[in-house]
Amino acid sequence: MMIKLNEQEIEIKMKNIDASWSLNGTSISRNFQCENFVEAFSFMSAVALMAERMNHHPDWSNVYNKVNIQLSTHDVDGLSNNDFNLAQEIDSIFKKYS
User: Fold this and answer.
1) Which terminus of the chain is more exposed, N or C, with fewer CB under 10 A?
2) What is the pLDDT of residues 5-45, one digit of tens each?
3) Assign residue 43 a region: left if phi > 0, alpha if psi is -120 to 50, beta otherwise?
4) Confidence (pTM)
């Protein structure tokens, strides 16, 4: 069962992910810039596979070498541990593309 995090819990979790993530009300988001479109698409493919394994899927967009990712847990109408776990995985994946 997923539990919605409170403000204090979110504040603590924000310290465990890359400082490039920003808190936007009921979601966290980060903009990524890759070298080119192929790198961006490869990054998105790796994130997609991880998200599917975690059964937690991002809201995202891509324009050429830029990927914008937003995470929230729709089932709790806010942020859960799943969002921060996926953010950490995304940070780890991005290190291979930056």
Assistant:
1) N
2) 999 999 999 999 999 999 999 999 999 999 999 999 999 99
3) alpha
4) 0.94
**Cβ–Cβ < 8 Å for 72, 79:** yes
Q: Which residues contact 1 (CB under 8 A, 6 or more apart)?
A: none
End-to-end CA distance of the chain: 35
CB atoms within 10 A of CB 33: 13
Distance CA 80, CA 13 (A): 10
∠ CA 60-46-63, nearest 5°, is: 40
Three-class SS state of 20: coil
Helix (H) or strand (E) holding 39: helix 37-54
